[in-house]
Design a protein that fits this description.
Helix content: 40-55%
Radius of gyration: 29 Å
Strand order of the largest sheet: 1-2
Number of helices: 10
Structural class: mainly alpha
Largest sheet: 2 strands, parallel
Length: about 300
């Protein structure tokens, strides 16, 4: 059950309208790193989690993210409020809207949504549940949540850097800082689970858990704790990077009698004959720059 309080979680003070800036702010309203995506991610995780501590944490943060959605939506609405009224009332100044909204996204926001905070990102792409990447395993979801909060913090940093409005900067700084707090909560929750690595129940195959395959070789190679040292067996030899299970590295399948017969018939029907070199349409239409073609000119 939700009860709405009409006071925002943080005060919004916008100095003057700016439709272009409003469009950028949409990134945290209906974008992949935005507040709605976060709220839905944590809310659905909370419903499915059987642990009372994590369930409570996830419900708390999910609900707070909804309050953040209200803050960023209010910023967008205030940035659009004056131009929205001018356009809606058909005043002469409405002809200047294209000067007020200098990119296609802010044009669309005014025409389609009347300057309201639409559930789209800053490029006008509609919000989608695909932004919610929960997998239903706490040790995986908490790591994803930590990363999501980190990404959201970076987006808020970038938004702070594109405005000189002190009131907007103040509200965005609050939202950015709460991403930091949520990262801390999620990390504490992750490490309250023991063991928490690797995610899930099944252990890794001990033959491969400590192996680093040096697959990209050449200028720029560098060693570090991520690929060398006492934790790792580094495999750089190309021959040792194939068929690492010790078998022949081929793909096979067991077919029953009917399947085997059909498979052989299909193989014979579609086989290639390396002896055939027919003149093709590309040969017949070849012009300067086509390179080598099949057959002598008099044979085409």
């Amino acid at each position: 059950m939700f009860i709405h309080n009409k006071s925002l979680m943080y005060t919004v003070r916008v100095a003057q309208p700016n439709p272009d800036l409003a469009s950028l702010m949409l990134e945290q309203f209906g974008g992949p790193q935005g507040e709605l995506a976060a709220a839905m991610r944590y809310f659905t995780q909370a419903i499915g989690d059987a642990d009372p501590g994590r369930k409570d944490l996830l419900y708390d943060i999910a609900t707070e993210e909804l309050s953040h959605l209200e803050i960023i939506g209010s910023i967008i609405a205030m940035l659009n409020r004056g131009p929205k009224a001018v356009l809606s009332e058909g005043m002469e100044e409405a002809m200047e809207m294209r000067n007020l909204t200098q990119n296609s996204t802010s044009h669309t926001q005014q025409i389609l949504y009347g300057g309201g905070p639409a559930l789209v990102n800053s490029s006008g792409v509609p919000w989608t549940a695909a932004y919610v990447d929960s997998i239903g395993e706490p040790t995986s979801d908490l790591r994803s949540n930590i990363a999501a909060e980190a990404r959201a913090k970076i987006v808020y940093e970038r938004l702070i850097n594109v405005t000189d409005d002190p009131g907007i900067k103040d509200a965005l700084t609050f939202l950015m800082t709460r991403e930091v707090a949520h990262q801390k909560s999620f990390e504490k929750a992750l490490y309250a689970i023991e063991p928490n690595f690797p995610p899930g129940k099944l252990p890794g195959d001990p033959r491969f858990t400590d192996v680093f395959f040096d697959m990209s070789q050449g200028p720029g190679d560098q060693d570090g704790p991520w690929n060398s040292g006492e934790l790792w067996e580094k495999v750089s030899d190309r021959d040792r990077q194939a068929a690492v299970d010790g078998d022949d590295g081929t793909a096979t399948v067991g077919l029953d009698g009917v399947e085997a017969e059909a498979d052989e018939a299909m193989r014979l029907r579609t086989r290639s004959n390396p002896e055939l070199d027919r003149v093709t349409g590309a040969d017949l239409g070849a012009g300067p720059g086509a390179g080598s073609t099949t057959g002598a000119p008099g044979e085409r």
